[in-house]
């Protein structure tokens, strides 16, 4: 009974606003690299007609669309607030003060360069490839550095006091592969090169004096309403115990396992740096398995997206969230937001877990 009460107390604590009770060093700035799960506005600057530029995106906290793929704040936002730093501005925004950090993440960004997909004839229908891969984001970082510091010593000092987050990124790589007609097995076989690209980016940043880094894993691909809708199976054995498509989750699990091994190797190579592995997979599967325990509402199924165009999971590729005529459920406390991304409530709990060591090792 004592263990149950302790667990419930921990869950209750995690569902509250992020606190600063487990602070690491006081950071001067945050720099972030990744995809839609941590993009704070770069995609909407590149593609102004993107549906995330419309309500109900941003309605919960910002009261307007900001380019975030959620109803409110992302994990990155909660991390910044918990360490008393401003919300991290998108790098492509004009007239921003980047002295406290910059966000290079872009929705639909890939870990591998777009050339890989073009050379291998993997151009999925209805999905535009952008030149915003991880290597491009690193180029943006290099371009920004001269405005932040001048000498090598000055830059090393500046970035030693900064928090660097790499990821989540990689999920869109696998989505492109299967959307372009490749098999799940093929996508799984490419996990090592996707993770290698992420590791190389992390190593290049650590070489520049970074002392505090977070590498985030990917979300459970087979639990996303979009995947559950597009690749629905008549075979019940294709689903795991909570209702996710296991073959697609295998990709995410493989990615996260290899990334965790890479983090351990980086810790050996850079013993003076604090390098954390942060998890999206575990908390999201926990939310879906026991939604009411974490305070989520269940509209028939915990997998149902908050905003969408109907169907068993409220996801319809012909009528996605943000498009005219697409409605949102009345209560923004579901797990999933639009069939791909998650709600502010989910991101808040995940951020708490990263800060308190429940979903990140070591804690951020």
Helices and strands in order:
Elements lengths: L1 H13 L14 E5 L8 H5 L28 H8 L18 E3 L10 H6 L14 H12 L6 H9 L1 E5 L4 H9 L4 H6 L1 H16 L5 E5 L8 H6 L15 H24 L4 E5 L2 H9 L17 E2 L18 E2 L15 H13 L3 E2 L3
Parallel strand pairs: 1-2, 1-3, 3-4, 4-5
Antiparallel strand pairs: 5-8, 6-7
GO molecular function: hydrolase activity, acting on ester bonds
Pfam family, one: Lipase_GDSL
Family: Belongs to the 'GDSL' lipolytic enzyme family.
Keywords:
two-stranded antiparallel ribbon; globular; six-stranded mixed sheet; alpha/beta; about 35% helix; about 375 residues; 13 helices
Describe the structure.
Belongs to the 'GDSL' lipolytic enzyme family. The chain is α/β, with parallel strands linked by helices. The chain has helices at residues 2-14, 42-46, 75-82, 114-119, 134-145, 152-160, 171-179, 184-189, 191-206, 225-230, 246-269, 281-289, 344-356, and strands at residues 29-33, 101-103, 162-166, 212-216, 274-278, 307-308, 327-328, 360-361. The protein has a 6-stranded mixed β-sheet. Strands 6-7 form a two-stranded antiparallel ribbon. The chain starts with a helix and ends with a strand. 46% of the residues are buried. Mean pLDDT is 92; it is low at 1-23.
């Amino acid at each position: 009974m004592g263990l149950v009460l302790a667990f419930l107390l921990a869950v209750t604590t995690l569902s509250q606003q992020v606190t600063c009770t487990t602070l690491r060093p006081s950071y001067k700035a945050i720099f972030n690299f990744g995809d839609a799960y941590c993009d704070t506005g770069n995609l909407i600057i590149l593609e102004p007609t993107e549906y995330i530029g419309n309500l109900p995106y941003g309605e919960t906290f910002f009261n307007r669309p900001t380019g975030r793929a959620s109803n409110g704040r992302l994990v990155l936002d909660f991390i910044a607030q918990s360490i008393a730093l401003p919300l991290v501005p998108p790098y492509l925004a004009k007239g921003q003060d980047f002295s406290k950090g910059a966000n290079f993440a872009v929705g639909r960004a890939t870990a591998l360069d777009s050339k890989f997909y073009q050379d291998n004839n993997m151009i999925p229908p209805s999905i535009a490839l952008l030149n915003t891969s991880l290597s491009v984001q690193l180029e943006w970082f290099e371009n920004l550095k001269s405005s932040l510091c001048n000498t090598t010593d000055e830059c090393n000092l500046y970035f030693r006091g900064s928090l660097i987050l790499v990821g989540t990124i990689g999920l869109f790589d696998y989505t492109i592969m299967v959307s372009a007609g490749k098999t799940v097995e093929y996508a799984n076989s490419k996990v090592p090169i996707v993770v290698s690209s992420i590791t190389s980016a992390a190593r290049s940043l650590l070489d520049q004096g970074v002392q505090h880094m977070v590498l985030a894993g990917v979300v459970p691909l087979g639990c996303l309403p979009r995947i559950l809708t597009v690749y629905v199976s008549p075979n019940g054995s294709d689903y795991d115990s909570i209702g996710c498509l296991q073959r697609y989750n295998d990709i995410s699990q493989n990615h996260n396992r290899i990334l965790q091994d890479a983090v351990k190797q980086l810790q050996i190579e850079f013993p003076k740096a604090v390098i954390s592995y942060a998890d999206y997979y575990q908390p999201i599967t926990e939310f879906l398995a026991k939604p009411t325990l974490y305070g989520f509402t269940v509209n028939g199924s915990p997998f149902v997206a908050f905003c969408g165009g109907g169907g068993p999971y409220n996801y319809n590729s012909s009528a996605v969230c943000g498009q005219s005529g697409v409605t949102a459920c009345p209560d923004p406390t579901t797990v999933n937001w639009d069939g791909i991304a998650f709600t502010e409530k989910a991101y808040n709990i995940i951020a708490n877990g990263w800060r308190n060591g429940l979903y990140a090792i070591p804690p951020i």
